[in-house]
Structure formats: structure tokens, C-alpha cells
Amino acid sequence: MLTLSGLKPSKAKAAIHHELPPISHCLHPSSLPFSAFSTRNRFIGRRRLCIRALDAAQPYDYEAQVSGRSEQSIKLRIAIGGFGNFGQFLAKTLVQQGHTVLAYSRSNDFDIATKLGVSF
């Protein structure tokens, strides 16, 4: 809740602040296992290790963009020469898997191709 009435925090904001868990978590080097620090560095830098924020998925996240590209690259554009029984079976199966199918036949099977979602 945002208030612009003064410099004092509102009561609702103060109540929410106390209910939320802390965002940062700190560890003292002595609480870590012995193998985490070498003996040379053990006595020199005894600073606290603090986690200030955690990564969250964002709409502009690079990993999300890459996964979207890989899903698009998996989809194929397939042409089938001959739209008889087996050609129709192949076209139906490939369309169900999300591929783009173009069929060609000497006979005019445009109506069947349209029902199956195939370009003719």
C-alpha cells in the first residue's frame, strides 16, 4: 500500500512488513562446512555471505526466449506427394503432431485436405 500523506509509514504497510519473511538470508563463514574454505583463507576474510535476491522468471528472460525458439524449430514443414489412403494417414498424423503439411495429388482432394487441416 502506497501512501503519499507523509513520511511516516502507514499502519497497513507496517503490519504487512512484519508478516513477510526476510528477503535476504545471511550465513557466517563459521557456520559453513570446513571444506568450503581453505586453511589459508580461513582466518583472512571472515565476512558474512548474504543472499540478497533470487532469480525469477521474467517475460523478457533469455531462457524463455531460447525455449520458445527451440519449440518453433522442432515444427516441420512437410510435403506429401500422393494423397491416397496412406498419404491422408500421414498427413493426419503429422498435423496432429503440430507440423505444417502440404499435400499434392493428381486427383482433386481439396475437400479432404481441408477437413484434415492440410494445405493442398
Automatic annotation (TrEMBL):
InterPro entries recorded: NAD(P)-bd_dom_sf, TYRAAT1/2
GO BP terms: tyrosine biosynthetic process
Gene3D superfamilies: NAD(P)-binding Rossmann-like Domain
Record GO terms (molecular function): arogenate dehydrogenase (NADP+) activity
Top-rank taxon: Eukaryota
PANTHER family registered for this protein in UniProt: AROGENATE DEHYDROGENASE 2, CHLOROPLASTIC, AROGENATE DEHYDROGENASE-RELATED
Name of the protein in question: Pyrroline-5-carboxylate reductase catalytic N-terminal domain-containing protein
